[in-house]
């Protein structure tokens, strides 16, 4: 279907393998379309009882979308880039609502778009090598692919913290906060696939039960790093539950003199010096708004937001283009953000990202979930 994605059927299981390891299996438009086609074909095929998603190579499942393509397309003045997001967000919804077990093997790097094709899974398997994040604010974007929705549904204000800072965390944290279901040694992933492919399953429920039982009965992964988020839950909630980013930063400055001084100093520095001021503020608002939205509505919202972030509406400035240039294309790591600081971001700058009509006739995701 594409050089960068393989689909095959073993036994009664459909396997989707992202096959672009040199680019950390970053999702191209062709890969997204190929995934959607395979899932559509298998949905109504009675011979297929479940689906397994995996990534080729040692480095990980998927580092995100093909951001080099985003930069090239926008720089060339192409507006068809929105077709990429239309198809990607529709795929995210398809996965979350898939009628058969969809098992995501979230090994290695799982970030951005990799989270989008995993978080809607029926069973999310992580390993000792898992490195998970929604790091979009570092390149002038926001946590899309349904990120607003699954971050908003975390306990307390973890969603605001993870969405604005984009910090990386491992398997234990992922399971403890609800972004993964089970930890399996990465060396056992092939055996899990063989077990599912070789079983004489009678229905989809049996496939899911077998996968869960295999994970429960496996030995713990070696070298599993302890979680770092659980001890910080109260202080995260106390700070990231404040009304806006300036208030959060002020509180972090005060906290730097107290018990969690190391965390507070690191977090304030990250937000001030390594993230887009505008997109940090937009992402905070996004997660909070998403608490009142369904996944379908959040994806429709994100489609409108993405038009703004690449300035396809001609009103907001192309923050994402500059971020990708600085971090990925030129690699000078000196993005010229639109705002010199978080305090310089005005309420109207944030509001522009949310004043579109999610249910407008021009939204290509209008029929999502209907």
TrEMBL record:
Q: Where is the Enoyl-CoA hydratase/isomerase domain?
A: 13-354
Question: According to its UniProt record, what is one Pfam family this protein matches?
Answer: ECH_2
**GO MF annotation, one:** 3-hydroxyisobutyryl-CoA hydrolase activity
Q: Organism's domain of life?
A: Bacteria
Which key words are in the record? Hydrolase
Task: Please cite one Gene Ontology biological process associated with this protein.
Answer: L-valine catabolic process
NCBIfam families to which the protein is assigned, alphabetical: PRK05617.1 (NF004127)
Q: What is this protein called?
A: 3-hydroxyisobutyryl-CoA hydrolase
Organism encoding this protein: Pandoraea captiosa
